[in-house]
C-alpha cells in the first residue's frame, strides 16, 4: 500500500518478498547449521546412522520373526536416532549418558530377552540378531563416550 511505501520508503510488494526470502534463508541456514554440527560432532552423526541401522536391521538381517529382538531393535533404534538428533541440535551430557546405558543394554539384551539361544533354532535369525545387538551396543556406547569426552575438551564430565 501507499502508506507502507511512505513509512519505509520501500514498496509493499518488495517488502513482502524480502520477508519471504529471509524466511527461506533461515530454513536453509537451519539445515546447513544442522549438517555443520553433525560433521563437527561426527560421533553423534554416526550414532544417528547406527540408530537408523538398528531400526532397519530386523528386515535387513532377517530376524523379523523373533518378536523380542524385533521390538528391541525398533524401540532402541528410534531412541538412539532421536538422541543423536537432539545432541546434534543442542548437546547435553545426559543424552550421551543415556546412549551409553542403551549401548550396555543392547550388548546384554540377546541373553536377557532370550533370543541368543535361538541361534540355531527353527525361528532363524537369532545368531544375526545377537551379534547385531552386541556390535551396535558396543558402537553406541563407544561413540557416546567419545562424544562426551570430545565436548569436554578431552576430559570426562
In terms of topology, how is this protein built?
Layout (H helix, E strand, L loop, with lengths): L1 H7 L3 H29 L1 H20 L5 H23 L3 H20 L13 H26 L6
Which structural category fits the helices and strands?
A: mainly alpha
Order of helices and strands: HHHHHH
**Gyration radius, to the nearest Å?**
23 Å
Sheet having the most strands: none
**Could you tell me the number of beta strands?**
0
Helix content: over 70%
General description of the model:
This protein is globular. It contains six helices and no strands. Helix 3 (42-61) packs antiparallel against helix 4 (67-89). The chain has 157 residues and is mostly helical.
Write a brief caption for the model.
With 157 residues, the chain is mainly alpha-helical. 80% of the residues lie in helices and 0% in strands.
Features:
single chain, 157 residues, 6 helices, globular
Amino acid at each position: 500500500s501507499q502508506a507502507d511505501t511512505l513509512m519505509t520508503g520501500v514498496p509493499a510488494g518488495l517488502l513482502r518478498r524480502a520477508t519471504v526470502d529471509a524466511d527461506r534463508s533461515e530454513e536453509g541456514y537451519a539445515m546447513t547449521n544442522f549438517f555443520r554440527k553433525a560433521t563437527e560432532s561426527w560421533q553423534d552423526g554416526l550414532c544417528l546412522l547406527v540408530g537408523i541401522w538398528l531400526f532397519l536391521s530386523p528386515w535387513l538381517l532377517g530376524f523379523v520373526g523373533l518378536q523380542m529382538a524385533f521390538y528391541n531393535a525398533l524401540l532402541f533404534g528410534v531412541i538412539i536416532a532421536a538422541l543423536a538428533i537432539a545432541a546434534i541440535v543442542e548437546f547435553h551430557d545426559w543424552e550421551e549418558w543415556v546412549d551409553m546405558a542403551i549401548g550396555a543394554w543392547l550388548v546384554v539384551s540377546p541373553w536377557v530377552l532370550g533370543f541368543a539361544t535361538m541361534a540355531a533354532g527353527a525361528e532363524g535369525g537369532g545368531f544375526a540378531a545377537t551379534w547385531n545387538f552386541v556390535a551396535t551396543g558396543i558402537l553406541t556406547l563407544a561413540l557416546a563416550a567419545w562424544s562426551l569426552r570430545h565436548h569436554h575438551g578431552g576430559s570426562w564430565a
